[in-house]
C-alpha cells in the first residue's frame, strides 16, 4: 500500500504545480496593462510604394484635410448591435487585425471622411481578395466611402483629386474640396518621384 500512497502524493504534487503555473500565467495576463514589456519599433512603417502614395495624397488634398496611414478598422467603426450576428461580427472585427491604408479626415474635427485602399499590381490570392472585399464592404457599411487605388510609380493627380473629392462629398455633402493646393509643391513632388524612379 505504501507505493500506492507515494504515487498519490506525487500525483497531487504534480497537479498542484500545474494548477499554480496556470494561475500564475492567468495572473500575468490579467495584470498585463500594469506591467512594462519591451517592444521594438516596426521598421519600415510604410512600404516604399505606400510612402509615395502618402506623399501624393498629402499634396492632392492640400490644407483642407489630413491623411492618416495604417488606421485600424477598430478605430474607425463599431459593430451594429441590431444585426443578427452581432457578437460574431464584433469578434471578427476585433481579431481581424486589418487596417485601412489611408484615411482622409477633416482638419478641424479629425472626422474620418473616406478610406483609401491600395491594390497591389500583382495578382491577388483568394485570401487577399477576400480581405480587400471585407475592408471595402466594412467601410461602406459604416458610411465611409472607399477609393481603391492601384499601386503605381506615378499617379494622375487630377483624377485622384476628383475621386477623393467625390468620396468626401458622399460622406458629407456639406464638405467639398475647393482645390486650395499649392502648384509649386505639386511640381516638386512630381520631380522627386521621377528622380526616385530613375534611381531604382
TrEMBL record:
InterPro entries: DUF2726 (IPR024402), UCP028063_topo_Znf (IPR014538)
Key words of the record: Membrane, Transmembrane, Transmembrane helix
Protein name as catalogued: DUF2726 domain-containing protein
Lineage of the species this protein comes from: Bacteria, Pseudomonadati, Pseudomonadota, Gammaproteobacteria, Chromatiales
The keyword Transmembrane is annotated on this UniProt entry: yes
Pfam family, one: DUF2726
DUF2726 domain ranges (all copies): 49-167
Domain of life: Bacteria
Membrane-traversing stretches: 6-30
Amino acid at each position: 500500500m505504501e507505493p500506492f500512497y507515494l504515487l498519490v502524493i506525487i500525483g497531487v504534487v504534480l497537479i498542484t504545480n500545474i494548477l499554480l503555473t496556470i494561475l500564475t500565467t492567468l495572473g500575468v495576463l490579467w495584470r498585463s496593462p500594469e506591467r512594462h514589456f519591451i517592444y521594438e519599433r516596426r521598421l519600415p512603417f510604410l512600404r516604399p510604394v505606400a510612402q509615395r502614395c502618402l506623399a501624393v495624397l498629402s499634396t492632392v488634398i492640400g490644407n483642407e484635410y489630413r491623411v492618416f496611414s495604417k488606421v485600424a478598422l477598430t478605430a474607425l467603426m463599431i459593430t451594429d448591435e441590431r444585426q443578427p450576428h452581432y457578437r460574431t461580427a464584433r469578434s471578427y472585427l476585433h481579431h481581424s487585425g486589418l487596417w485601412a491604408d489611408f484615411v482622409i479626415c477633416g482638419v478641424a474635427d479629425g472626422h474620418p471622411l473616406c478610406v483609401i485602399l491600395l491594390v497591389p499590381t500583382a495578382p491577388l490570392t483568394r485570401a487577399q481578395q477576400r480581405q480587400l472585399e471585407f475592408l471595402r464592404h466594412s467601410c461602406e457599411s459604416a458610411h465611409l466611402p472607399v477609393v481603391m487605388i492601384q499601386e503605381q510609380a506615378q499617379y494622375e493627380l487630377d483624377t485622384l483629386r476628383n475621386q477623393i473629392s467625390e468620396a468626401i462629398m458622399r460622406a458629407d455633402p456639406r464638405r467639398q474640396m475647393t482645390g486650395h493646393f499649392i502648384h509649386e509643391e505639386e511640381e516638386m513632388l512630381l520631380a522627386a518621384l521621377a528622380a526616385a524612379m530613375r534611381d531604382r
